[in-house]
Specification:
By secondary structure, the chain is of the alpha/beta class. Helices cover 34% and strands 18% of the residues. The strands form 3 sheets. The chain has a 7-stranded parallel sheet with strand order 8-7-6-9-10-11-12, with helices on both faces. Strands 2-1-3-4-5 form a 5-stranded parallel sheet. The longest helix is centred in the C-terminal third of the chain and has 21 residues. The radius of gyration is 28 Å and the shape is elongated. It binds nicotinamide-adenine-dinucleotide. The site of nicotinamide-adenine-dinucleotide (NAD) has 30 residues, from helix 7 and helix 9. Nicotinamide-adenine-dinucleotide (NAD) binds next to helix 7 and helix 9. InterPro entries: ACT-like_dom_sf, D-2-hydroxyacid_DH, D-isomer_2_OHA_DH_cat_dom, D-isomer_DH_CS, D-isomer_DH_CS1, D-isomer_DH_NAD-bd, NAD(P)-bd_dom_sf. This is Phosphoglycerate dehydrogenase. GO terms for molecular function: (S)-2-hydroxyglutarate dehydrogenase activity; NAD binding; phosphoglycerate dehydrogenase activity.
Length: 464
């Protein structure tokens, strides 16, 4: 049998005689001659709901055109609006749709969900999912997808710029120039090369930052609650204190959890080297800001960059003042402190990646039943059905997590060959995917009746 490698090498053997179109013709001929050669590249079969109703998507809040195009390319009917919908508008329209895409302004409440009789999936084209009643969504059998990590690189790059800005004090110098003051300085201005960066939280952002910082010639230490494989020459340290006492720059990349609130307070600031810098692009509550103000005023720290705050203004143009956070004016008045309005992840690239990631997750659920990365649902996926296995049907069964369900479902499936099956649960919800072979159209309705008719059934779909 000719392997694909051989096909490619036989094409490559006489490159000068082949134009680009004749190369493609040549490959087509070889494929026809020996189509089995390509069988090992398992072509996934594109599945569709067996029910013939077209899938309709409601896309709100000016979600990226790429995402809309990707949905249309799947053959879905897409209604696309730039604005957010109010609850009343949603109540009027949601019943027609199988999927909805939103950002943070459209609220998917329990009331909206109870009117969403056909809704299968919610895509949040943003980082957070607070705008969705996640519990009501899972009870209704609706997975919710978001994109928590698409802006990691953007945050890591902002931190790199802050390291340079703080160590060269150029934020201060640029501010003076804007006010017409020439103040050329080199005292206490440093290169990053050879300095130590301490990263607290070596997850998506922390680990990317580690690579960028090493490219600048920095020595990288990190502290994390779990043991992680260091990238490059970075080194994990055993305690926060060890990291704080060795680092010239400390940058925080941890989630907000009960144990991380005020994780950097008076004691931890005093453990930092004199003249060190603190950067917080993680969450507002992980730093005790009054303690930071004291450490900066006493010149124990040489500067800080803060992008996130315990209370943040609701909209652009709103004041960032002492009414919002009692220490705002003090922090604003300290030299070599860079304050930014939570822009760590705000780039065009991150927006585009959010569009790609969420549209792919929604499509994978609609076409293949995969709930990988859903925030409110058990994560279940199955190896693809290949084109060669075209007679298989995938059953996607969302049900209440209660005893006896699998026995009932497997009883219904027992006349068929179950090629593969996977089931998992999360809280009150469980989800089963099963691929079964040789099911006739008459069998579909019988199977549907039996599985959808069980007490625990929430939503059952058949894909083929
Ligand atoms: N400024 C912004 O615009 C912006 C953008 C994106 C993310 N963020 C924030 O950045 C933070 C990090 O995001 P990520 O995507 O890298 O998260 P992540 O979940 O990938 O990584 C977090 C890491 O912190 C570690 N960790 C948890 N608790 C810890 C503790 N007590 N001590 C030490 N390590 C601990 C975890 O083990 C994990 O490795 C999050 O708080 C996120 O909300 C901010």
């Amino acid at each position: 049998m000719t392997s694909p490698v051989n096909i490619i090498s036989s094409v490559a053997a006489s490159p000068s005689s082949l134009t680009s179109s004749s190369i493609h013709d040549h490959i087509r001929i070889l494929r026809r001659k020996d189509s089995a050669a390509l069988d090992y590249i398992r072509q996934p079969k594109i599945l569709h709901p067996i029910e013939n109703e077209d899938l309709r998507l409601l896309i709100l809040e000016n979600i990226s055109q790429e995402a809309v195009r990707a949905f249309r390319a799947q053959g879905y009917h897409v209604d696309h609006y730039t604005k957010a919908f109010s609850e009343e508008e949603l109540l009027e329209k949601i019943g027609q749709y199988h999927a909805i895409g939103i950002r943070s302004k459209t609220k998917i409440t329990k009331r909206v969900l109870s009117a969403a009789s056909k809704l299968l999936v919610i895509g949040c084209f943003c980082i957070g999912t607070n705008q969705v009643d996640l519990k009501a969504a899972s009870q209704a059998g609706i997975p919710v997808f978001n994109s928590p990590f698409s802006n990691s690189r953007s945050v890591a790059e902002l931190v790199m710029s802050e390291l340079v800005a703080l160590s060269r004090q150029y934020f201060e110098r640029a501010w003076e120039m804007r006010n017409g003051v020439w103040n050329k300085q080199s005292k206490n201005c440093w290169e990053l090369r050879g300095k130590t960066l301490g990263i607290v939280g070596y997850g998506h952002i922390g680990s990317q930052l580690s690579v960028l910082a090493e490219a600048f010639g920095m020595r990288v230490l990190f502290y994390d609650v779990i043991n992680l494989m260091p990238l490059g020459s970075a080194r994990q340290v055993e305690s926060l204190e060890s990291l704080l006492s060795q680092s010239d720059f400390v940058t925080l990349h941890i989630p907000e959890l009960p144990e991380t609130i005020n994780m950097i307070s008076k004691k931890e600031l005093s453990q930092m080297k004199k003249g060190a810098y603190l950067i917080n692009n993680a969450r507002g509550r992980v730093v005790d800001i009054p303690a930071l103000v004291d450490a900066l005023k006493s010149k124990h720290l040489a500067g800080a960059a803060i992008d996130v705050f315990p209370f943040e203004p609701a909209a652009n143009g709103d004041a960032f003042d002492d009414q919002l956070n009692s220490w705002s004016s003090q922090l604003r008045s300290i030299p070599n402190v860079i304050l930014t309005p939570h822009i760590g992840g705000s780039t065009e690239e991150a927006q585009r990646m959010i569009g790609e990631e969420v549209s792919q997750a929604v499509t994978r659920y609609l076409n293949y039943g995969s709930t990988l990365s859903a925030v409110n649902f058990p994560e279940v996926d199955l190896r693809a059905i290949t084109n060669a296995e075209g007679n298989q049907v995938r059953i996607c069964h969302v049900h209440k997590n209660q005893p006896g369900v699998l026995r009932q479902v497997n009883d219904a499936l027992s006349p068929y060959n179950v090629e593969k099956q996977y089931s998992d649960s999360k809280g009150e919800i469980a989800y089963l995917l099963a691929d079964i072979a040789d099911v006739s159209p008459a069998d579909f309705s019988r199977l549907r009746e039996r599985i959808s008719g069980t007490d625990a059934n929430i939503i059952t779909r058949f894909l083929a």
